[in-house]
């Protein structure tokens, strides 16, 4: 049985439509984030796929830090987990938990957990806070990002999305694509993965077509 191109492309179109629907509900694009490190373990591991939403999307509006009273539980801990993109050149977006908000000029180490701070305010480049923003931390890390030098105080405008839940292991494909793009470039990666997808789709269509043809022939013999 010969399949036309529209039938071969149907699964890819369906996946794209699902992504568009999820994005319209979540208010963020892309609506999924592939986790590339273990800094949010054990709740979120490398290779997991995290569904995200915009920070002001109903009913998840606003940003809440882990230290705030009544902080919601997100991904196994108190406080919102956010994706933020520091302006420093070459750094990839980071997905960590908000610890607490800070104001410009504040010595935020005075209300920080001492076990998560390396030294006093004078020893930390991001202290006092140079502007209003947030102190953040990866759940698996032993220090706040701003104490460890992972990120400066996070401005609200750097935050691109808020994490809702994680699906184990579904992010490995995205991690592989990103690694391939970094190694060989966007166009060769697109051609390579496109070729693999086309071959897989063609083989699957051929296989299912033969199975269907055999069933039809068998049914006709049994009549």
Automatic annotation (TrEMBL):
Keyword flag Transmembrane helix: yes
Positions of the Peptidase S26 domain: 13-98
Subcellular location(s) per record: Membrane
Keyword vocabulary terms for this entry: Membrane, Transmembrane, Transmembrane helix
GO annotation terms (biological process): signal peptide processing
Principal subcellular localization: membrane
Stored Pfam families: Peptidase_S26 (PF10502)
Membrane-traversing stretches: 190-213
Gene3D superfamilies found in the cross-reference section: Umud Fragment, subunit A
Record carries keyword Mitochondrion: no
An example Gene Ontology molecular-function term: serine-type endopeptidase activity
GO cellular component: membrane
Full protein name: Peptidase S26 domain-containing protein
Organism of this sequence: Halorubrum kocurii JCM 14978
